[in-house]
Amino acid sequence: MPSSGRPTAGEIADLLAEERRIEPPEEFKRLAYLRSRQTRERSWAEPEQFWENAAYGLDWFHPWDQVLDWKPPHARWFVGGKINASYNCCDRHIRAGQRNKAAIIWEGEPGDSRVLTYGDVYREVNLFANALKSLGVVKGDRVAIYMPMVPEAVIAMLACARIGAIHSVVFGGFSPEALRDRINDAGAKVLITADGSYRRGQILPLKHDADYALRETPSIEHVVIVQRGDFPLRVKEGRDHWYHRLIQEADPYCEPVPCDSEDPLFILYTSGTTGKPKGIVHTTGGYLVGTYTTTRHVFDLRHDDVYWCTADIGWITGHSYLVYGPMSAAATCMMYEGAPNWPDRDRFWAIIEKYGVSIFYTAPTAIRTFMKWGEEWPARHRLSSLRLLGSVGEPINPEAWMWYHRHIGGGRCPIVDTWWQTETGMIMISTLPGLDFMKPGSAGLPVPGVRATVYNTAKQEIATGGGLLAVTHPWPAMLRGIWGDPQRYVDTYWSKWDAGTYFPADGAKRSADGYFTLLGRVDDVLNVAGHRIGTMEVESALVDHPSVAEAAVVGISHEIKGQALIAFVTLKEGQTASAEVEANLKEHVVRKIGALARPEKVVFSADLPKTRSGKIMRRLLRDIGEGKILGDTTTLADAAIVENLKRQYEEKEEV
Amino acid sequence: MPGPTAVRKILIIDDDQGFALALAHFLGKAGYAVRRAENGEEGLRMAAQEFPDLILLDFMMPIKTGFEVCQELRRTPGLCAVPVIVLTAFGQNIGEIHGLRQGETGAQVRAVLEKPIEPNVLLERLVEALSPQAQPGGV
Question: Which residue of A216, A284, A383, B24 has the fewest CB atoms within a 10 Å radius of its CB?
Answer without folding.
Answer: A216
